[in-house]
Structures are given as C-alpha cells and as structure tokens.
Write a structure and sequence with these properties.
Subcellular location: Membrane
Radius of gyration: 50 Å
Shape: rod-shaped
CATH class of the largest domain: Alpha Beta
CATH topology of the largest domain: Beta-Lactamase
Strand content: 15-25%
Catalytic activity: ATP + protein L-histidine = ADP + protein N-phospho-L-histidine
Number of strands: 13
Strand order of the largest sheet: 8-10-11-13-12
Largest sheet: 5 strands, mixed
InterPro entries: BphY/WalK/GraS-like, HAMP_dom, HATPase_C_sf, HATPase_dom, His_kinase_dom, HisK_dim/P_dom, HisK_dim/P_sf, Sig_transdc_His_kin-like_C
Distance between the termini: 61 Å
Structural class: alpha+beta
CATH architecture of the largest domain: 2-Layer Sandwich
Pfam family, one: HATPase_c
Helix content: 55-70%
Number of helices: 12
EC number: 2.7.13.3
CATH superfamily of the largest domain: PAS domain
C-alpha cells in the first residue's frame, strides 16, 4: 500500500468534507427555495385569478341581467399575466375571449412574452402543458356565467419572477464556489500549520535514530499538543544524551577498575613463572585481594543486569519491620566504627508489615552504604522508622558531603554519579539508588531526597496504605 504524506491526507480530507458539506447544503437550500418560490407563484396566480373574477362579477348589470364586459381591463390582465381569458353568460354564450395570442408572445408585449417563454424553459417550467381553470361567476349568490382562465406551465410565473429566481440561483452558485475556494485556502493553511511542525519533529527523530542526541527541536506553534510533543522530544534527546555520556563514563571506569587488578595479577604470575618472586603467603594474599576486587566488579555488573529486568517480582510476607531494621543497624555498626562514624537508630517498635523482606533490607543496605561512603569521619548517620497514619515512613539522614542542587533531579537515574572525584574510591557504579527506587515503587511506595552541598542528605521512603497490617 502506497504511503501518502500527512499534508495530502489532510488536504484531501478537508476537501471532501468541505465540498460534501456545500453540496448537501446547496441541494437542501435549492429545494427549500423551490418550495418557497412555487408557493409564492401559486399565491400570486390565485390572487390574479381572483382579481379577474371580481372584475367580471362587478360588471354585471342586475337590472338588465347582462354582463357589461370591461374589455380594456381584461385585455390588460391577459397581456400582463399571459392569460387566455374566456367569459360566458349563463346560457353559454361567449361574451369575451382574449384569444391565445398573449400565451404565444403576440401583441404589444410580444418580445417580453418570448423572453418569458424562454426563461420558463431555462428554469425547467413546463411550457408545453396548457392549464385551464374554469370558475363560476356569481352575483348575490346567483350564478351569472362562467370564466375560463388559461395559461402555460405551472403557476404561470412572470418575467420578473423568473429573473428573481435566476438571481437567487446565481447567488447560491457563486456563494458555493467562493465558499469552496475559501475552504480550500483555509484547509491548506491549517494543514501546513499542523504538518510543518510534525515534519520538523520527524527530522529530529530521524537524527536521534542515527545517534545525534545533540539536536533539539525549535518548533514554535500555537497548537498546544504540538508544543508539548516538541518539548517531549527535547526532553527525550537530553535524557538519551545524558544516558549515552553516563554509559561511556561507566565503560571507561569499569575498564580502568578491571585493568588495575588484572595488571597486578599478571605481574605476580609472571614473577612466579620467571622465578623472580617466590609464592610466599604475603604475595598470595595480595593476589587473593585482587581476585576479590574482580569479584566485586563482577557483582556490580550483575546488579546492572538485574536493573535491565522489566519487572521486579516481590515475595511478600508478614514480618516485624522494626526487628529487621535493628538487625541491619547491628550489622553496619562495626563498619561505621572503623571510619569513626556514629550510626543512630530511631526505630519505633512493632511495625508489622506485609512486604518483601529481602528487598526492604536491600533498600536499607544501599542507603546506609551510600551514607557511609559519602560521610566524613566523626560524622553521624540516623536511621528512622515510624508509622504515620496508614503509612510506614523510613528515613536515612547523614551529615556528609551532600548533593549539589543541579544533581538532585538526576541521582535516581541509572549510571548517574554526582561525586565524580570519589567514584573509584567508593567503587560506585551509579545504579544503587536506581535499584532502590525501583524496589520502593514495586511496593507501591515513593522515595525522595533533600540535600544541601556540604551539609548532608536525607532520603525518605513512604510505603502507602494497604501494605501494612493493622
């Protein structure tokens, strides 16, 4: 199936809608005009016939019992209205006959009659049928004779009537043509306003597909949805650009961290092979330490692989959160002591919950590890847990180096590390907080961070109602 551009589709759609609408409107308008015009002609014909009948009835002389025909007036009616008028008395004697000359275009208004006949044919009035209406003449409720009024076609329209009808049709036709032209022009303008920004955004998307994440959309339009689409494309480009930079930095850092222990191991092994060094306990212990470093690096890579999984499967159970958090604190206290850090716990008792115990403990491990890595000596870290209404609130607060304001909105993104100078010292891969966030959200909770550079940070987790056992 051949693809058609959006501009052509919009133009075609607008054209069909506009033309179709005006055709339907024109047909309906024409029918209404025909109906109203025919009704008008019918009324006009009746009025003229009534005037002729009244004229003849008024000319009746009761004393003599005869009709004094006003031939001049009847001739004028016959000529003006293109009538064939015949008047007979009560005995059937013809008193007056205008003849059919006025029907055929003869007489003083011959040219007008011919024009009248031509216009009737032009506007589809039947000129071949002769219509004759016979009326009884009365005087004081007594019959005095009959009058026949004949004419050609339906309703016997005059030249003025025909011209008026013609003008109406012309106005309607020109209005439809102008309306269609105006509609097409507006359709083109509207289509351009819609498609031009979309074409530009499509070009930007293609550039991004080719790996150019530096490009940005500069679309300016009054259409809200298109503006939002343009901003979304820019946000996507910025995110991809940042992720690309983070991946490159992670690759570089991992390569460096892998190279160091591998180089050390290679030197030791070559020394053993060449007989330069003896495999003493000290040398073997150094090799063992480098192998442990490599093992930790592999574990970090496994964490990255876990992060790529689409969904986290939770193994929920009922347990006492207070007890588990206190166990974690006891595990970490010796490590904190080595760095002369104080780990303080402010955990309310009997926090019964229904969660994935291992995931919750891993969340706390990550947060306490971060607090440990980024706290200065002789500092303190406070782990708090309490119940607020139907929520469980857990917070980890430190007085360490803090996080810059520009980094706060990115710290939960994978591979992002705000403190680049301490990357290798802390051994971070930039995915710890991303994992924490995904685990919290898997439980239906939220996590936020407040921090000031040089003053410390506080991470707060809220697990919503429905996860706790009352």
């Amino acid at each position: 199936m051949k693809n058609i551009s959006l501009l052509k589709k919009l133009l075609l759609s607008f054209f069909i809608v506009i033309v179709g609408s005006y055709i339907i409107t024109s047909i309906m308008a024409n029918k209404m005009i025909d109906k109203s015009f025919n009704s008008y002609l019918e009324n006009q014909l009746k009025e003229k016939s009534d005037n002729i009948i009244k004229l003849v009835e008024k000319s009746y002389d009761e004393s003599k019992g005869i009709i004094n025909i006003d031939k001049e007036s009847l001739n004028r009616y016959a000529e003006d209205g293109s009538f064939d008028i015949v008047v007979k008395d009560i005995k059937g004697n013809t008193l007056y006959s205008s003849g059919n000359g006025y029907l055929m275009g003869k007489g003083t208004m011959g040219n007008m009659m011919k024009k009248h006949s031509q216009m009737m044919k032009m506007y589809n009035f039947n000129t071949s049928d002769y219509v004759e209406e016979e009326h009884q003449l009365y005087k004081n409720n007594a019959a005095i004779g009959t009058i026949s009024i004949g004419y050609l076609g339906n309703y016997n329209p005059t030249v003025q009537d025909m011209e008026f009808r013609g003008n109406l049709n012309s106005v309607l036709l020109y209005s439809v043509i102008l309306a269609i032209l105006f509609g097409l022009i507006m359709s083109l303008i509207l289509s351009k306003q819609i498609t031009t920004p979309l074409v530009q955004i499509n070009k930007i998307a293609n550039e991004m597909k080719r790996g150019n994440f530096n490009i940005r959309s500069k679309v300016q339009t009054s259409t809200l949805e298109l503006n939002e689409l343009s901003q979304s494309m820019n946000y996507l480009a910025e995110g991809l650009q940042m992720q690309e930079a983070l991946r490159k930095r992670l690759t570089s850092d991992m390569a460096h961290e892998l190279r160091t222990p591998l180089t050390t191991l290679l030197n030791y092994v070559e020394g053993f092979i060449d007989g330069v060094w003896q495999p003493t306990g000290e040398k073997l212990n150094s090799c063992h330490e480098e192998i442990l470093r490599l093992t930790k690096l592999v574990e970090r890579l496994q964490d990255i692989a876990k992060l790529e999984q689409a969904n986290l499967v939770l193994n929920k159970s009922s347990f006492n959160l207070s007890i588990e958090l206190k166990k974690v604190v006891e595990v970490y206290k010796p490590f904190y002591s080595k760095k002369k850090l104080t780990l303080i716990e402010n955990i309310h008792d009997d926090l019964e919950v229904f969660m994935d115990k291992d995931k919750i403990k891993q969340i706390i491990y990550n947060l306490l590890s971060n607090a440990f890595n980024y706290s200065n000596e002789k500092g303190e870290v406070v782990l708090t847990a309490y119940k607020k209404e139907d929520n469980i609130v857990i917070s980890v607060q430190d007085k360490g180096i803090g996080i810059a304001k520009k980094d706060l909105s990115h710290i939960f993104e994978r591979f992002y590390r705000a403190d680049k100078s301490r990357t290798r010292e802390t051994g971070g891969t930039g995915i710890g907080l991303t994992i924490v966030k995904s685990m919290v959200e898997a439980h239906g909770g939220t996590i936020k961070v407040e921090s000031k550079l040089g003053e410390g940070s506080i991470f707060t987790i809220v697990l919503p109602v429905g996860l706790t056992i009352k």
